[in-house]
């Protein structure tokens, strides 16, 4: 930078006319994002410390030096979205103490404090300060946090009558995952008005214990789980989730593996394959979900293997005519020794594509050694552009490529980034054929 | 003769065009209609719809609309300034600022970034 901020301020102090010009426009600003150095410099400049944005409703901050957010904070703000980067503890603590007073009407709070120094050096202090700040808000409708909260505040959040969106993910230092020590009496109904729920949890039973058959109407449930659930736990979760109350509301279910889970299982393919087979999920785990006729997204991306045959897949597909995203690929067990107890083939895939015409994303391990002789000549689906079939058993790459070209003409790639199996080269041939035909 | 030369009467000089203009003005008194037009201008592109932020072309159009007539001026400015991804537009209100990269100090242009 050639010109220092100091020189600029001294040379060109804002005149009365300039202040009037700013006043002419600043009251129109309703949503503001601060993520560039130039804006930060503007706020740092003492001459403009009294910048007034009287109608600002949404403020998004993605910068260091959060102390300079202060002039922007006002009672008009209803949505605050803050991601800090490397701020020191005192600055951040000061912000957490002050913003609830300056913005008493907040309806939506999103905090990502994972980049703060304090979260590594002294997470307990920072988490306590953040929890106390959150506890001030009695009418929050949306809360998104990437660091844990105190248990007392967490219980308050779970019982909030106003929250519609609740996202609690991630961990900090030695802090446990969310919800580990929370126990809500069965007579109470947590998450009463939550529509969209995203949680990082240690085990699936934690969330199952919070589900009630009535008075909870979810739209999306996304769970990051640190340990692979037992098949019985998945079945219990599915049964508790798929109630009459949620038949028309639930549209998206995602269960995926929390990457930084303790134990170091991820990365050790032998351990993952063993877990994948030992904890293999069968049709019983999914059967209750067939009750949810408006499901649009189902993603099960765990260490657990998944064992389904064509008939079972067809039953599931017939129950979900609005399905747009289906991902049932285990993290690594698709590379384990085949066959799984049961497996889907291209015949099952065709039924799925016919039953779910809105499918646009699909990740389903299948046994590609059987290719139907008489596949329909018309395409089943033109929205899906890629499949990840690496590691799935295959014998004739040319026939597989022709089948995919006919049934899924938009698919131009079937190979994942890494395939250590004996089928790797055959899938590369399929990929080459498809790319040649589609020209991509 | 004038018609043969392709010359036309000024807008509003005939009863029919007066009526048309009156109808137009009446339509522009409907805030909902102006809002719909500006919403379309502001979020016409798919990127803008996704981000809910007017892209550069939309901002130019809103800027022009703000100077087109009184009916459009205030609501266009509201759309133009309603959502900002930076304080740069405000900073440009200062006399010394040429744009977000240059500032004029004592007659010399200096870079800010």
- Contiguous low-pLDDT stretches of chain B (5 residues minimum) are 1-13
- Quickly give the structural class of chain A: alpha/beta
Strand residue percentage of chain B: 5-15%
What portion of residues of chain B is helical?
A: 40-55%
What oligomeric state best describes the polypeptide chains here? heterodimer
Major pleated sheet of chain A: 12 strands, parallel
H/E series of chain A: HHEHEEHEHHEHEEHEHEHHEHEHEHH
Please tell me the overall pLDDT of chain B.
71
Q: Let me know the number of strands of chain A.
A: 12
What's the gyration radius of chain A in Å?
A: 26 Å
Strand order of the largest sheet of chain A: 1-2-3-4-5-6-7-8-9-10-11-12
Distance between the termini of chain B: 62 Å
Short structural description:
By secondary structure, chain A is α/β, with parallel strands linked by helices.
Structure description:
The complex is a heterodimer of chains A (440) and B (113). With 440 residues, chain A is of the alpha/beta class. Chain A is built from 15 helices and twelve strands. Chain A has helices at 5-11, 16-26, 37-44, 89-102, 117-121, 123-135, 151-158, 204-208, 231-241, 269-278, 283-286, 310-319, 346-355, 397-407, 424-438, and strands spanning 31-34, 58-63, 79-85, 108-115, 142-145, 165-168, 196-201, 220-225, 252-257, 297-301, 325-327, 361-363. Chain A has a twelve-stranded parallel beta sheet with strand order 1-2-3-4-5-6-7-8-9-10-11-12. The longest helix of chain A has 15 residues, at 424-438. Chain A is globular, with a radius of gyration of 26 Å. The model of chain A is unreliable at 1-12 and 261-265 (pLDDT under 50). Helix content of chain B is 52%, strand content 12%. Chain B is built from six helices and four strands. With 113 residues, chain B is mainly alpha-helical. Mean pLDDT of chain B is 71; it is low at 1-13. In chain B, helix 4 runs antiparallel to helix 5. Chain B has a three-stranded antiparallel beta sheet with strand order 2-3-4, with no helix packed on it. In chain B, strand 3 (102-105) and strand 4 form a beta hairpin. The A-B interface holds A 1-3, 7-8, 11-12, 14-15, 17-18, 21-22, 25-26, 28-39, 42-43, 51 and B 77-78, 80-91, 93-97, 100, 103, 105-106, 110-113. Strand 1 (31-34) of chain A pairs parallel with strand 1 of chain B.
């Amino acid at each position: 930078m050639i010109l220092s901020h100091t020189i600029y301020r001294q040379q060109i102090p804002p005149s009365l006319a300039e202040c009037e010009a700013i006043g002419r426009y600043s009251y129109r600003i309703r949503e503001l994002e601060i993520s560039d150095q130039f804006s930060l410099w503007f706020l740092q400049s003492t001459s403009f410390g009294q910048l007034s944005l009287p109608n600002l409703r949404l403020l998004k901050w993605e910068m260091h030096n959060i102390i300079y957010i202060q002039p922007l904070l006002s009672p008009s703000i209803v949505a605050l979205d803050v991601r800090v980067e490397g701020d020191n503890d005192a600055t951040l603590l000061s912000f957490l103490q002050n913003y609830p007073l300056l913005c008493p009407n907040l309806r939506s709070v999103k905090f990502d404090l994972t980049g703060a120094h304090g979260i590594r050096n002294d997470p307990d202090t920072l988490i306590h300060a953040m929890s106390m700040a959150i506890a001030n808000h009695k009418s929050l409708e949306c809360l998104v946090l990437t660091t844990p909260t105190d248990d007392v505040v967490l219980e308050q959040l779970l019982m909030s009558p106003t929250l519609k969106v609740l996202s609690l993910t991630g961990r900090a230092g030695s802090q446990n995952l969310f919800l580990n020590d929370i126990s809500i009496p069965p007579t109470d109904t947590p998450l009463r008005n939550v529509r969209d729920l995203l949680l990082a949890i240690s085990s699936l039973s934690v969330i199952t214990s919070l589900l009630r058959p009535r008075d909870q109407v979810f739209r999306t449930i996304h769970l990051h789980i640190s340990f692979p659930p037992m098949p019985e736990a998945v079945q219990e979760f599915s049964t508790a989730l798929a109630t009459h109350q949620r038949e028309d509301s639930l549209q998206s279910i995602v269960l995926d593996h929390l990457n930084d889970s303790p134990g170091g299982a991820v990365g050790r393919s032998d351990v993952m394959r063993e877990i994948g087979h030992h904890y293999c999920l069968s049709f019983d785990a999914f059967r209750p979900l067939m009750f949810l006729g408006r499901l649009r997204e189902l993603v099960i991306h765990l260490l657990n293997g998944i064992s389904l045959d064509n008939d079972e897949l067809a039953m599931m597909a017939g129950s979900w005519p609005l399905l747009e995203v289906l991902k049932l690929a285990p993290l690594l067990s698709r590379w384990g020794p085949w066959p799984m107890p049961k497996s889907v083939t291209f015949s099952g895939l065709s039924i799925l594509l016919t039953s779910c015409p809105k499918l646009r994303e699909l990740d389903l391990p299948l046994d590609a050694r059987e290719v139907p002789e008489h596949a329909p000549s018309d395409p089943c689906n033109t929205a899906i552009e890629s499949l990840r079939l690496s590691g799935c058993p295959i014998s004739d790459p040319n026939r597989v490529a022709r089948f995919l070209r006919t049934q899924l003409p938009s698919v131009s790639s079937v190979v994942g980034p890494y395939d250590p199996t004996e089928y790797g080269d055959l899938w590369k041939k399929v990929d080459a054929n498809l790319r040649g035909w589609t020209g991509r | 003769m004038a018609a043969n030369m392709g010359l036309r009467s000024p807008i509003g000089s005939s009863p029919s065009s007066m009526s048309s203009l009156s109808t137009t003005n009446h339509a522009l008194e409907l805030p909902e209609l102006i809002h719909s037009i500006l919403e379309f201008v502001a979020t016409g592109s798919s990127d803008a719809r996704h981000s809910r932020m007017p892209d550069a072309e939309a901002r130019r159009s809103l800027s022009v609309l703000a100077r087109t007539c009184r009916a459009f001026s205030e609501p266009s400015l509201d759309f133009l300034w309603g959502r900002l991804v930076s304080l740069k537009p405000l900073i440009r209100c200062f006399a010394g600022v040429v744009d977000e990269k240059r500032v004029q100090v004592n007659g010399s242009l200096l870079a800010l970034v």
